[in-house]
Amino acid sequence: ATPTALLVGTGRGAQLGILIRGPEVLESTRRVDTVLLDKTGTVTTGRMSVLDVRGHADTLRLAAAVEHASEHPIARAVAAAVPDRPAVASFTSHAGHGVSGIVEDRTVWVGRPSFLAAQGLTPLDLPSSLPSSLPGTVVGVGWDGAVRGLITVGDTVKPSSSDAVRRIRALGLRPVLLTGDASPVALAVAHEVGIDAGDVIADVLPAGKLDVVRRLQGEGRVVAMVGDGVNDAAALAQADLGLSMGTGTDAAIEASDLTLVRGDLTAVPDAIRLSRRTLGTIK
Ligand code: ADP
Ligand code: MG
What we know:
Layout: H1 3-15, E1 18-20, H2 25-31, E2 34-38, H3 39-43, E3 49-55, H4 59-67, H5 73-80, E4 89-94, E5 98-103, E6 106-111, H6 113-118, E7 137-143, E8 146-154, H7 161-170, E9 174-178, H8 183-193, E10 200-201, H9 206-218, E11 223-227, H10 233-238, E12 241-245, H11 250-255, E13 258-260, H12 267-278
Parallel strand pairs: 2-9, 2-11, 9-10, 11-12, 12-13
Antiparallel strand pairs: 1-13, 3-8, 4-5, 5-6, 6-7, 7-8
Bound molecules: adenosine-5'-diphosphate (ADP) and magnesium ion (MG).
């Protein structure tokens, strides 16, 4: 394509709410055949709320104290559920796993149950501890050597996500859901937006997202990755095309080639179509 065509394409992108790092990005956009979609904050709104709390009476209060210091959508939901929180010291974020901090002289851990187990905390033994009717993410809360409570949080699929997935398919691309969350939640979201169960990659740690991109590239695929979180940044940078949500973190935006200003996934097929048009493969 001529430099003029590329500039026109870039300008048209801006009108569609797609910020393009440089005109050369349109070339890699055109060749993409696989679209990896992060779940939380990308396919879903990322605005979570607390659905259920079980276990020790201090579970929500202590968790909220630690989560108040975190930017994660889960953290915002937990912190918002308790207006009067105790203070936290030595806050630490363990990306893709959870958080920890000292609250009222105890080290409190909040995060994936498997992460808490790896910290040496004894699992909580509740009869029917998983509320099966709630399609939520279960987060463990532990202190003094044991997991003492479980909090279920959930968010909703963005209204535009199903339409975006349908249009991604219509362009001949394969949508894949890639998430650090547990597979029951991932499968429920995939089903809702029309991604095949076989194309769900769940329980992935942040470094694992990068590995998935590399593995697919090793199989000859040209990979677009769409994400919003700090935990997506490495995968966004490795992908042939990295797309960030304008509503996402600075780390994700800086690692990406395209930013979808409105945080709406329908801008993904828009971007692919735009690059095909600009580079003359379709009229
Ligand atoms: P996604 O890939 O869907 O955007 P993340 O990689 O951000 O999800 O998080 C993966 C998992 O790690 C979450 O489902 C949760 O179990 C746990 N986790 C991460 N951050 C936190 C936090 N601040 N509080 C509690 N749990 C967390
Ligand atoms: Mg995310």
